[in-house]
Amino acid sequence: MRRNAASPRAGRPVSALGVAILGSTGSIGTTALRVLERQGGRFRVAALTAHSNSELLGEQVLRWTPGFVGIVKGDGHASHAGWALGEGCLVRAATRPDVDIVLNAIVGAAGLDATIAALEAGKRVALANKETLVIAGAIVAAAAARGGGEIVPVDSEHSAILQCIGARPRGEVRRLILTASGGPFRDWPRERLARVTLADALKHPTWNMGRKITVDSATLANKALEVIEAHYLFGIPFDRIEVVVHPQSIVHSMVEFVDGSVLAQLGTPTMEVPVLYALTHPERVADGGLPPFDPVAASPLTFEPVRLDDFPALRLGREAGIRGGAAPAVFNAANEAAVALFLESRIAFTDIPRAIGDALDALDRMDGSSRDALGLADAAARAHVRGQFA
Ligand code: NDP
Ligand code: MG
Predict the structure, then answer these.
(1) pLDDT, averaged in runs of 10, over the chain (390 residues)
(2) Strand 101-104 and strand 84-85: pairing?
(3) What is the pTM of this model?
(4) Are 189 and 181 in contact (CB under 8 A)?
(5) Do the domain assignments include residue 248?
(6) Closest CA to 113 of 84, 158, 143
(7) Is 147 within 8 Å of 122 (Cβ atoms)?
(8) What residue spans of 202-266 are helical by DSSP H?
(9) Candidate from 24, 27, 222 with most ligand 1 atoms within 8 A of CB, to mutate
């Protein structure tokens, strides 16, 4: 979903690009600040927002002196004079005139409105918040078309696909092949999955991420979100988007072309690379922070089929994507609600896909034709999941 092939610097006087980081205190947010630290004067931190971690946000503000600071759940004591409070701060940060690029690193549906507002304001959105595209892919595309904004993915799989496809016409693409690490339970027998503990699920084998996406990676709901994300980003039908398990997380994804050629993007599993690429696409800039890639140390590279029957969230999400309308928003909200309950140790690991499936069955007639309708579907799905375990 790229409106402009040019970088956000094109046509502007050469000055540092203003970056708003929504969710600066999270895993992606702090990774981004580490990347910016090494980029010298190329970028300027124009805005930072957090949910409630005012301590870390305060440290970041001292270091980066942004023109705007927002905190969603701050109060007069926890946050500082001049900080914007409440949910509205996300859209305010995303639409400021001194912001060229919005890095949306918020987790969950809370990131949606800021993405839409940024695209309507003509910004580049470096999108980590995949939930945005899952909930409202068509509405987000329309916002980009209206405002002239563009999305560049941060998710490593989608960054890989973007780098492989480049500007090639979509008619040349036969298949997208998303890689999945398989998560911590890749080789666990099915009977053991019912006894997974929270600590087990939070131990991801190859990536160090926030808690929600770490659980999503263990259930493979994350890969379902990514299949839908890929569909909207690249305009490829669902039956040409496949998933393969690749435990080493070195091949970040592949594109098969109609002539049988397959391009893949490889690298050490660190989000620093796709974060920087989303800021500079289509240019590449030097980053001395990473050691050179060592293919011998990375080997062997192996691939396996997904155990779809044991990790049903992937199939449920793909089916919801194909059904369209409100179904992907219901899938996403049911997953968010179920993961929140799992993180509070109130439900079992295997209850997560079960709760999603029940919500999709119960809410299969919800309207998904507008932002408001999707908000209702989201709320209904959350209520349905909580009701199942009340
Ligand atoms: P984290 O939980 O580490 O960080 C989330 C950030 O969002 C924090 O800054 C948090 O603030 C803020 N936040 C949480 N809830 C809200 C809310 N309701 N309103 C506003 N801000 C909120 O998540 P990650 O960084 O791991 O993930 C962020 C997004 O990136 C997700 O969509 C994830 O799927 C995606 N992603 C992440 C990857 C990773 O490696 N981590 C890889 C690929 C995609 P506070 O700290 O104050 O609570
Ligand atoms: Mg990913």
Answers:
(1) 51 78 98 96 97 96 98 81 93 98 98 98 98 98 98 98 95 98 97 96 92 98 98 98 98 98 97 98 95 96 98 98 98 98 98 98 97 98 96
(2) unpaired
(3) 0.96
(4) no
(5) yes
(6) 143
(7) yes
(8) 211-219, 221-234
(9) 27
Q: Compute the Cα dihedral for 207, 208, 210, 216 and give only its sign.
A: positive
Nearest CA to ligand 1 atom 18: 110
Number of domains comprising the chain: 2
Q: Are 224 and 350 members of one domain?
A: yes
Indicate which ligand has the atom closest to the C-alpha of 29.
1
Specify the ligand 1 atom closest to the Cα of 128: 30
Domain assignment present for 288: no
Q: Is residue 280 part of a domain?
A: no
Separation CA 86–CA 184 (nearest Å): 36
Give the C-alpha distances (Å, rounded to integers) separating 5 from 124, 138, 162, 229, 307: 11, 20, 12, 20, 38
Residues framing ligand 1 (Cβ under 6 A) = 23-29, 50-53, 72, 105-107, 110, 128-131, 155, 207, 209-210, 212-213, 271
Task: Say yes or no: 147 and 207 in one domain.
Answer: no
